[in-house]
């Protein structure tokens, strides 16, 4: 059987204690600390296909996939071989190389963009795209949506979604920073609107539109749990382009995940700029931003907007990204199989929760899924306020029920899970069996 019960976390506990002594909270990215669900974060020793193995030797079916990059599954042979091949020739040149050209050609072709610039993280991509939008338009303000996360640049840590929904207490006001250390003056340059509320965006743009450099958004939200945009909201987003503001699709999560051209391709979006991360680097540190040639030509050294990176275009990272995207492109059935697995998982969870008398509301699109622990009809959770009505304690207990049965689910109610192409029927059956038991646990007090 693929699942196994575990009460053995001695090695992870010991590592967590050592980590806490030398690293804030013991982790290098907050959500990894299991703060909202409690318990010991598992320290991972290795990962293959759909599975993780922790420091105590326990195996888990993984639904995080490194928070998105591992769409092919962990340690995929094509990616491993491409990185091993690149490794023979040196790890960083600080000078241009052929792989950067190849990946840029591939990305622009798949996404219908003119030009792309590589960074080393999604945060750098969104931060740079906003600077570019301000440089191109000569305007100062940006608009973002409550519960959307775009990385941790100062001006974007405003009403910023999952990690902050999970780890910070207290109500957040209009344009209030969601982190200490962000000056109100920075936050004041970021206007916040409601996701899936076209009238709110129209009103905001009617009042301030002439000052707005860019509207940045998650085309499918992963960072408040999965939220799917309505056609009316997408139409309102496109209206901002008529007012001289650039439309920036943050596809760091959805790029190459929902289709070869991300949510943009799936939903018929026409952004001016797009940001990528995660899958574009195949599990190595890569981000990118790209789009219209006339806008991208404002980037240094061609144009006046400065942006740089010592390790940008790193040959190992480019090799991993190239192998991942080429594998995705070569396998015509891959997105259909991901959708099929994930919709079966969604249907299974709905049926099992109903059978156990547990209220959940499932949002699912392609290989992204969130079960919100609340009684709203399936598919009806559309914005941050509705997502926040979930029973996070119930979710936390269900999460622990899954984890103890060998299923590594995202450790927060306000995250998407990510299914990989390595997940097969065997993993689906084992997951639903564990989910059945975890729902039953909720009825035992
Ligand atoms: N944008 C979105 C939509 C994201 O989901 C993330 C990370 N989860 C980021 C930006 C930031 O990317 P990174 O963590 O690579 O800096």
UniProtKB/TrEMBL annotation:
<keyword id="KW-0032">Aminotransferase</keyword>
<dbReference type="Pfam" id="PF00202">
    <property type="entry name" value="Aminotran_3"/>
</dbReference>
<keyword id="KW-0808">Transferase</keyword>
<dbReference type="InterPro" id="IPR015424">
    <property type="entry name" value="PyrdxlP-dep_Trfase"/>
</dbReference>
<comment type="similarity">
    <text>Belongs to the class-III pyridoxal-phosphate-dependent aminotransferase family. HemL subfamily.</text>
</comment>
<protein>
    <recommendedName>
        <fullName>Glutamate-1-semialdehyde 2,1-aminomutase</fullName>
        <ecNumber>5.4.3.8</ecNumber>
    </recommendedName>
</protein>
<dbReference type="GO" id="GO:0006782">
    <property type="term" value="P:protoporphyrinogen IX biosynthetic process"/>
</dbReference>
<comment type="subunit">
    <text>Homodimer.</text>
</comment>
<dbReference type="GO" id="GO:0030170">
    <property type="term" value="F:pyridoxal phosphate binding"/>
</dbReference>
<dbReference type="InterPro" id="IPR005814">
    <property type="entry name" value="Aminotrans_3"/>
</dbReference>
<dbReference type="InterPro" id="IPR004639">
    <property type="entry name" value="4pyrrol_synth_GluAld_NH2Trfase"/>
</dbReference>
<dbReference type="InterPro" id="IPR015421">
    <property type="entry name" value="PyrdxlP-dep_Trfase_major"/>
</dbReference>
<dbReference type="GO" id="GO:0005737">
    <property type="term" value="C:cytoplasm"/>
</dbReference>
<keyword id="KW-0413">Isomerase</keyword>
<dbReference type="InterPro" id="IPR049704">
    <property type="entry name" value="Aminotrans_3_PPA_site"/>
</dbReference>
<keyword id="KW-0627">Porphyrin biosynthesis</keyword>
<keyword id="KW-0963">Cytoplasm</keyword>
<keyword id="KW-0663">Pyridoxal phosphate</keyword>
<comment type="pathway">
    <text>Porphyrin-containing compound metabolism; protoporphyrin-IX biosynthesis; 5-aminolevulinate from L-glutamyl-tRNA(Glu): step 2/2.</text>
</comment>
<dbReference type="GO" id="GO:0042286">
    <property type="term" value="F:glutamate-1-semialdehyde 2,1-aminomutase activity"/>
</dbReference>
<dbReference type="InterPro" id="IPR015422">
    <property type="entry name" value="PyrdxlP-dep_Trfase_small"/>
</dbReference>
<dbReference type="GO" id="GO:0008483">
    <property type="term" value="F:transaminase activity"/>
</dbReference>
<feature type="modified residue" description="N6-(pyridoxal phosphate)lysine">
    <location>
        <position position="278"/>
    </location>
</feature>
């Amino acid at each position: 059987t693929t699942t196994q019960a575990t009460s053995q976390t001695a090695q992870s506990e010991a590592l967590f204690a050592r980590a806490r002594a030398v690293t804030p909270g013991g982790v290098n990215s907050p959500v990894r600390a299991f703060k909202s669900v409690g318990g010991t974060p598992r320290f991972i020793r290795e990962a293959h296909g759909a599975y993780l193995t922790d420091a105590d030797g326990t195996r888990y079916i993984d639904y995080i996939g490194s928070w998105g990059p591992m769409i092919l599954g962990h340690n995929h042979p094509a990616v491993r071989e491409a990185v091993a091949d690149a490794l023979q020739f040196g790890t960083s040149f600080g000078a241009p190389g052929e792989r950067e050209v190849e990946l840029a050609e591939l990305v622009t072709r798949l996404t219908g963009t003119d030009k792309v610039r590589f960074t080393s993280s999604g945060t750098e991509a969104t931060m740079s795209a906003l600077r570019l939008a301000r440089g191109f338009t000569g305007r100062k303000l940006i608009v973002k949506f409550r519960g959307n996360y775009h990385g941790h640049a100062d001006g974007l840590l405003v009403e910023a979604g999952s990690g902050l929904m999970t780890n910070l207490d207290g109500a957040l006001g209009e344009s209030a920073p969601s982190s200490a250390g962000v000056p109100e003056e920075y936050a004041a340059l970021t206007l916040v609107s409601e996701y899936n509320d076209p009238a709110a965006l129209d009103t905001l743009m009617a009042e301030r539109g002439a000052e707005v450099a860019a509207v940045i958004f998650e085309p499918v939200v992963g960072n408040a749990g999965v939220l799917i945009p309505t056609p009316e909201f997408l139409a309102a987003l496109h209206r901002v382009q008529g007012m001289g503001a650039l439309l920036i699709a943050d596809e760091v999560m959805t790029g190459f995940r929902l289709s070869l051209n991300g949510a943009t391709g799936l939903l018929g979006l026409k952004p001016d700029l797009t940001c990528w991360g995660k899958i574009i680097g195949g599990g190595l540190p890569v981000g990118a931003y790209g789009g219209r040639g006339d806008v991208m030509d404002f980037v240094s050294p061609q144009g006046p907007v400065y942006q740089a990176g010592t390790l940008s275009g790193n040959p190992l990272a480019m090799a991993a990204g190239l192998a991942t995207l080429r594998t995705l492109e070569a396998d015509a059935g891959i997105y259909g199989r991901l959708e099929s697995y994930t919709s079966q998982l969604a249907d299974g969870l709905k049926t099992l929760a109903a059978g156990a008398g547990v209220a959940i509301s499932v949002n699912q699109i392609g290989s992204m899924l969130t079960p919100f622990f609340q009684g709203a009809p399936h598919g009806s959770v559309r914005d941050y306020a509705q997502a926040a009505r979930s029973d996070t304690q119930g979710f936390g207990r269900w999460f622990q029920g899954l984890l103890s049965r060998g299923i590594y689910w995202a450790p927060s109610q306000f995250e998407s899970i990510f299914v990989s192409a390595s997940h097969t029927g065997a993993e689906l059956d084992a997951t639903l069996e564990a989910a059945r038991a975890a729902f039953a646990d909720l009825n035992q007090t």
